[in-house]
């Protein structure tokens, strides 16, 4: 079936549990009831299976719902199997879990050694007054079956996996209990390595329970060191923060056809505005639509403006290569397609910090400052890598205008100033791009003068400039993150490599990135592959990874390990080798580096999204490390 055909169907599994025998909640069932009502209002025929647990006031069963609607393991497993059997390739599946989460100690090689493996706490027993576990490895198999069939899956986990002992009744965490685990032992045949069958370099750094990232997106309410709490609205009703902010964002910003990347950035802005000490995480394919085919005119992903101590700011800083004097266009964040959204204001960067920057703008925009989003207009850092126009190129005025509109610096052949790229027209009437050393830039499409226009070539020049801008990203003088707070190494078999090393590898080799947090605060990890086709790709396939501090009582090892398979691309096998750079960034606060990502050259660009930030008494800071990989056919 064509995924774009009118026959595409929508399936939903909604799970909300209030009536736990121990530590009951108050907002989980209403979370999924509100989401069910929203999905039914979208004018899409959604096949919904809902499982809720609320306390009964009568005798007999402990739950108000019928047993077939209880959130038990058997009912949930049957629901997954039903969707997998009835759905067709290209169908959309939405799964929402609101309830308690916990973590089990790591038990396998591919377990999460940093903080243990997640577990969802379901109900059990003849009267629904007991608990049982849905393990991450089992959830991973359910997801794998769906993704392997070609289904497009969105999973929302509004629970937490923090290991602290919490006494508040509004925290969605419950301690892992071995007696509960013994009621339904895991099948030893279910193994992480059987789920993680993907072999591409861009997929292998996923957490072990996640599968092929192209087929799903997962929203997690928080990191392992944080808590997912229930909040109250003005009428005293409780709700999960992620569930509430997700639903209101869908209602306000384009509905279920909105792109994950766009939704995630706006959800993070709502968390920040509410001063909620949670940093939601997004894994998987951020370019799919939430629960329908993505609407192209919602593709723009500007960053949200926020106000801190009375000063407007953007969540971009030195780590994102923002410079003093850079300009951004501002517009309302609500109703992205409305005519009222067409008036832009211009903001100028006044002060640049490691992860955030202050901006100033016209007074007319002040009244909207809680609903503003920003998109880059002029980035001065691009001018530090100028382009030289050769005398063989005609229409210099047109070229210079196009390049300057992209914030690129431009020199002519008569200039003695150094340049990063040199564009010329060879005797075959083909455009050639050479680097600063005069070498022809490799892996570019043929660009004949009579087949491509100036705009196309300028797009290529801008792409190459942005790639090398990211390649040069560094922070040699961090103010807080000293070497005593962490270690970063790459391993191949028994060999260990420090940052800056060149690692020679055979084709299809596996390298392992290991990061250790030696500080008393969480560290946030980002990793990118700068590849031979001029792509900058997020190889963690998530908004970020967090490494909590070392705490044995909470199962925090302080260590993160991710494996990466490296292979020579098919179109480079005649060359026999390829070179990549793995760039690792550590930060003291969560952010996102989507603004740095680039597709393979000549593929459509995927715009960046808004970073999020949670205020903590730790200064903003970041450090950057590079590993140079040279992979050769044997």
From TrEMBL:
It comes from Stachybotrys elegans. This is Caspase. PANTHER family: METACASPASE-1 (PTHR48104:SF30), METACASPASE-4 (PTHR48104). One of its GO terms (molecular function) is cysteine-type endopeptidase activity. One of its GO terms (cellular component) is cytoplasm. GO terms for biological process: proteolysis. Residues 10-283 form the Peptidase C14 caspase domain. Transmembrane segments: none annotated. It comes from the Eukaryota. Belongs to the peptidase C14B family.
